[in-house]
Design brief:
By secondary structure, the protein is α+β, with helices and mostly antiparallel strands. Helices cover 45% and strands 17% of the residues. It has helices at 2-15, 30-36, 51-54, 76-86, 204-210, 219-253, 260-278, 285-291, 296-323, 330-343, 351-358, 363-386; strands at 55-57, 65-69, 95-96, 108-117, 120-133, 138-139, 144-145, 162-168, 183-195, 255-256, 388-392. The strands form three sheets. Strands 3, 4, 5, 6, 7, 8 and 9 form a seven-stranded antiparallel β-sheet that branches. A two-stranded antiparallel ribbon has the order 1-10. Strand 6 and strand 7 form a beta hairpin. Helix 1 packs across helix 12 (363-386), helix 9 crosses helix 12 (363-386) and helix 11 crosses helix 12 (363-386). The protein is extended.
Length: 393
């Protein structure tokens, strides 16, 4: 099961760059027409690629030497820091101070507040029971900052006071254009003073209440859970870095030719997928790209370069899969497809929909493409497992 899990994790390096055809919205022709300007032939799933012919040079792939750079160890300091950062999202925002009633440096303050513009309360400018980090001008629970000067009026305030801060909104403020560049006043009702939670002051009772859904009952269980999550994340990062290093090695020491019609088909499919995801029915791809500081020609050039590299990876490791006689394990393949569903990589919810997505409407072509992609990733796993990996910190 360990190797199978690793294979599923490794597969996503390739899968995420492997475009399906997507699904256009009814009546949306702008994206399709833009894609057809690039290519209007058969889909990539309909093309049979002779990998023995396309891979003209294949490096010796058994026991290759690769170096990855990173720190993949999880320290106790990292665990404690992450656990503390996690607390506000679970409602543990501070410990109430009961021996004084004046806000001091480093305090958190619980408030109700209302914003006024030209003497009138404005929409979206009020909230209740908000915990504010006065020194850092931010919301403790969400860890988001406020406009400069927002918490200034709270410095030195007392519990029960009503205080105010004058705040000038930025000249560019798309959330509410009526407030852009305008002077406003926020009035605060100070409800309590709190101090930041430290691990020393965090109690088992606080953990049990806040993390009930995660079934964590003690501080020790919380730290252990955080350590497991960070360790898993570090291992996954190391795996992904190793995959990238192995792919780069094979690309540098091998040669694969990508047929132009196949590259154009993949470009067209990727472009259509991009349109479906980012462009509304009334916005053309060109308009979207211009609004984001680029042009269709430049973006297609970038996409084409990325896809060409990815296709070469697929060709090289597809050839290795042939040489190693890697077959499709049906149970493993089913896990592979279901991982695509659960991860949201294909935006589909059933196996048939995944096949249609990757087969441009044809379940048969989609299943064929994904089975080959599965073999590619099994080949990547094979090379990774046999590589000599040096970690350079």
């Amino acid at each position: 099961m360990k190797k199978r899990t690793i294979a599923i994790l490794l597969c996503m390096t390739t899968v995420l760059a492997f475009a399906g055809c997507g699904k256009s919205q009814p009546g949306d022709t702008q994206g399709t027409e833009a894609a057809e300007e690039t290519y209007n032939g058969p889909s990539s799933a309909q093309m049979d690629i002779d990998l023995e012919k396309q891979v003209t040079k294949l490096a010796d792939y058994d026991g290759i030497d690769v170096t990855i750079t990173g720190d993949y160890e999880v320290t106790e300091d990292q665990v404690e820091e992450y656990a503390l950062n996690l607390l506000p999202y679970y409602g543990i925002t501070g410990i109430e101070v009961e021996d004084r009633d004046t806000v001091e440096d480093g305090d958190y303050v619980k408030v109700d507040y209302t914003g006024y513009h030209k003497g009138e309360a404005f929409e979206g400018g009020a909230a209740e029971d908000v915990m504010l980090d006065v020194a850092n001008n931010m919301d403790v629970a969400s860890q988001t900052g406020f406009i400069e000067g927002f918490t200034d009026g709270l410095k030195g305030a007392k519990v029960g006071d009503e205080v105010s801060s004058d705040v000038t909104f930025p000249e560019e403020y798309p959330q509410n254009e009526d407030l852009a560049g305008e002077l406003t006043t926020f009035k605060f009702n100070v409800k309590g003073i709190y101090e930041p939670v430290t691990l020393e002051k965090l109690t088992d009772e606080m953990v049990a209440e806040a993390f009930a859904e995660e079934d964590l009952k003690t501080k020790e269980e919380l730290l252990e859970s955080v350590k497991d999550a960070l360790t898993s994340q570090a291992e996954n990062t190391k795996n992904q870095d190793t995959v990238s290093a192995v792919e780069d090695y094979m690309l540098e020491n091998s040669q694969a030719d990508v047929p132009e019609d196949y590259l154009n088909a993949r470009l067209s499919e990727y472009q259509q997928q991009f349109v479906d995801q980012y462009c509304s029915g009334t916005q053309s791809l060109e308009d979207y790209l211009i609004a984001n500081g680029t042009t269709l020609a430049d973006q297609q050039k970038s996409w084409k370069s990325t896809l060409e590299k990815q296709i070469k990876v697929e060709f090289l490791f597809g050839r290795i899969a042939d040489l190693e006689k890697i077959e499709v394990d049906e149970d493993d393949f089913s896990q592979f497809v279901n991982y695509l569903i659960s991860s949201g990589a294909s935006q589909m919810t059933t196996e048939d929909e995944v096949y249609e997505y990757y087969g441009c409407g044809s379940k048969e072509n989609g299943k064929k493409s994904l089975r080959q992609l599965y073999r590619v990733n099994r080949a990547i796993s094979h090379v990774v497992e046999n590589a000599n990996v040096t970690v350079d910190k």
